[in-house]
Write a structure and sequence with these properties.
Layout: E1 8-12, H1 17-28, E2 32-37, H2 40-48, E3 53-57, H3 63-77, E4 82-85, H4 100-128, E5 131-136, H5 149-169, E6 174-181, H6 187-200, H7 207-212, H8 224-234, E7 246-249
Parallel strand pairs: 1-2, 1-4, 2-3, 4-5, 5-6, 6-7
Helix pairs in contact: 1-8, 3-4, 4-5
Bound molecules: nicotinamide-adenine-dinucleotide (NAD).
Nicotinamide-adenine-dinucleotide (NAD) is lined by residues 13, 15-19, 37-39, 42, 58-61, 86-89, 109, 136, 138, 181, 183-184, 186-189.
Length: 256
């Protein structure tokens, strides 16, 4: 396993799912880790279960809380070498019924917060001539699904931010990539199974096979550890030539 001793990693949404798996992997590889999350209790439990890991509470829909969290994490860890923009939520509804406040919440958390954190992290990375920014996109950074207008828009936007960051940061030793998974077995997906069953009017046990993985040649959910492994790879020396990529781990979904 690659050692990340001496490196620091800030992971948003690190209290659960993919973010927690990434925090576990970085902590096991020797990095100092900051978990940022809106979930105070979950974040404290997650951080206390890992070595060299701190928790910072922030609602990433708030610019003030996002910026203050970054400053607190950078002060506690002394620097931020690796930024993983991971926090995300889903909301499922047809466009004509989609609540505008849910639209704004998703765009604020999943596009604006990554921009604010990238903006805050780059100067220190440029100074040290090394940095890795991993944006957790989705297969929905590349393709669309009905009833997910805000999520698909946010994930396409995050891939755009990734590409611009890669272009600007390359001369400074900083890479930026967008990891694009298909469905991963996390609480976010558990909630969607129930919502999709309602939207498509089918039983919940048919949702994974008939809706979620129907278009993929490999019909299974991914595990959070598989995404964490890809994140660490993209931060490793072997991946120093990879930047601006849509790094798909999607069971072949987007191969169509
Ligand atoms: N699970 C999947 O199938 C899947 C597939 C592709 C992409 N993704 C993406 O991976 C990322 C993580 O998803 P997950 O499945 O691990 O979800 P999850 O629900 O397990 O974890 C998301 C975390 O984000 C936190 N969060 C939610 N709102 C927040 C806010 N306003 N401020 C700060 N933190 C907040 C939650 O408390 C939670 O800890 C998301 O961006 C998601 O879109 C997930």
């Amino acid at each position: 396993m690659e050692s990340f001793a001496g490196k620091t990693a800030l992971i948003t949404g690190g209290a659960s799912g993919i973010g927690f798996a990434a925090a576990q992997a970085f902590a096991a590889a020797g990095a100092d880790v900051a978990i940022a999350d809106i979930d105070q209790q979950g974040g404290e439990i997650a951080a206390s279960s890992l070595p060299n890991t701190h928790f910072f509470r922030a609602d990433l829909t708030s610019e003030a809380e996002t910026v203050a969290m970054f400053e607190a994490a950078a002060a506690a860890l002394d620097k931020i070498d690796i930024l993983v923009n991971n926090a995300g939520i889903q909301y499922i509804a047809p466009i004509e019924e989609f609540p505008p406040d849910q639209w704004r919440r998703i765009i604020d958390m999943m596009v604006t917060a990554p921009f604010l954190l990238t903006r805050a992290a780059l100067p220190g990375m440029y100074l040290r001539k090394w940095g890795r920014i991993i944006n957790i996109g989705s297969a929905h950074s590349l393709i669309a699904s009905a009833y997910k207008s805000a999520y698909v828009t946010a994930k396409h936007g995050l891939l755009g931010l990734t590409r611009v960051t890669a272009l600007e940061a390359a001369p400074h030793g900083v890479t930026c990539n967008c990891v694009c998974p298909s469905y991963v077995r996390t609480p976010l997906v558990d909630k969607q199974i129930a919502a999709q069953a309602k939207a498509h009017n089918i039983p919940e046990d048919e949702v994974v096979e008939k809706i979620m993985t129907a278009e993929s040649p490999i019909h299974r959910l991914l595990e959070p550890q598989e995404i964490a492994d890809a994140i660490l790879y993209l931060c490793s020396p072997s991946a120093s030539g990879i930047t601006g990529s849509a790094f798909t781990i999607d069971c072949g979904w987007s191969a169509h």
